[in-house]
Amino acid sequence: MGSVASVLRVLSDFGDAAGWLVAALVLFACGRRILKENEAAHAAITENVQENRKRIDEFGGTLHAIARDVAVLRDRSDRAGA
Fold first, then answer.
1. What whole-number distance in Å separates Cα of residue 77 and Cα of residue 70?
2. Distance from C-alpha of 14 to C-alpha of 21, rounded to nearest angstrom
């Protein structure tokens, strides 16, 4: 963003309407570029969040299966000991 500020400083030194128009166009172009980059980053983050949720659901299912197996083994152990 430092280069944009430098361009604006040079253009504002001229003080004419054309300079301000160019400055506005430069800011507009920079703003659009930043917006596109933010949209791409948002899409990547959203995809990552969905993938992580899927992994958490799979892990939760695994934990549930392990807990069920432990309960079955504990029940068998209790019956064998009785």
1. 10
2. 12
Integer angstrom CA distances of residue 41 from 2, 36, 37, 51: 22, 9, 6, 15
Task: Please name the residue ranges forming H helices in the chain.
Answer: 2-14, 17-81
Rounded Cα–Cα distance for residues 6 and 65 (Å): 62
Whole-angstrom distance, CA of residue 41 vs CA of residue 35: 10
**Alpha-carbon dihedral angle through residues 15, 1, 28, 33, given to the nearest 10 degrees:** 160
pTM to 2 decimal places: 0.52
Q: What number of CA atoms fall less than 13 Å from residue 29's CA on the CB side? A: 7
pLDDT digit string, tens, across residues 4-19: 777 777 766 666 677 7
| Token representation of residue 82 | 């009785």
Length of the chain: 82
User: Quick one: tokens of 21?
Assistant: 């128009």
